[in-house]
Amino acid sequence: MSGPANTADRYARQVILPEIGAAGQARIRAAHVLVVGAGGLGVPVVQYLAAAGVGRITLVDPDLVERTNLHRQPIYGGRLGRPKAQAAVAVLRILNPDVVVTPVVDWLTPANAPALVAGADLVLDCADSFAASYTLSDICLPTGKPLISASVLGMAGYVGGFCGGAPSLRAVFPDLPPALGTCATTGVLGPVAGMFGTLQAQMTLSVLLGFAPSPLGQLIRHEMSGFRLSGFRFDRAPEPEPAPHRFIARGDLSPQDFLIDLRDAIEAPLPAAPFARRHRVEDFGPGGPVPEPGQRAVFACRSGLRAWRAADRLRPHWPGEIALLADLPEIPGGETR
């Protein structure tokens, strides 16, 4: 740990700001933030929050460092093959040994998310997963935890402050877009991802310090191919009705569920559960299969995207409960380590 004099020097350039001061720095040091995702967004987030002196950071990510990550995640140079969460911790301990960073090498799921969120003062969604984004929003809204969420693809993206007294992610994005790309399929420019991660870090500090106007209830968009910036406040956005499809954990499945695995036997030799039936998204709709009265419909796929689309096709023909399962691959030894 650094001595008092070294600590004062470290934060001197931000403590001198009238908006922060010694009291503000104390609030930053007392905070515990949960960061989900240690990729193109999460890397600048944890760097700037650790440098600012946030007292505790829990960092969740299941992935290993790959060469294709390095153009937008430069802290991982020389750490190929290591779990990102652990590799990031090694860097942050050098950057600021006063900050306690806990790596969690695992997926964020409906099973582990409640406990992770409960232990934090603020949550940052830096995951490359819309299932994780909606799961976090669904937990943060009723618990009153601020959620700073961002998404970036190609040359554009958004960042916003949700929950914690503001409307949820679902209030602003109640429906999926017609198509969802990934960095692997669509591409992304490193500085664009870094810019949005930096905005997430700034929004986080603004919430922790109580700045006004609050970033909660604010959404910012950047389209960097034309250097266009836009934004709006959504403080009064209504929560979607009826209740949206929610993600559940595999452990929440029941043999009584109408469980549909939307993957074929080549993609998933073992279905989500022994009692699952295999169907395609297109099978659902007029004249398609429906649950028995009293059953819960559960749609499963790897990311949750096909599950959401199948649920949308079933909904006009089925008034009962519908849930989604993002059936992610298991991480060997996936746990805090």
Automatic annotation (TrEMBL):
InterPro entries: ThiF/MoeB/HesA, ThiF_NAD_FAD-bd, Ubiquitin-activating_enz. Coiled coil: none annotated. One of its GO terms (cellular component) is cytoplasm. Residues 11-232 form the THIF-type NAD/FAD binding fold domain. Pfam families: ThiF. It comes from the Bacteria. GO terms for molecular function: nucleotidyltransferase activity; thiosulfate-cyanide sulfurtransferase activity; URM1 activating enzyme activity. This is HesA/MoeB/ThiF family protein. It comes from Paenirhodobacter populi.
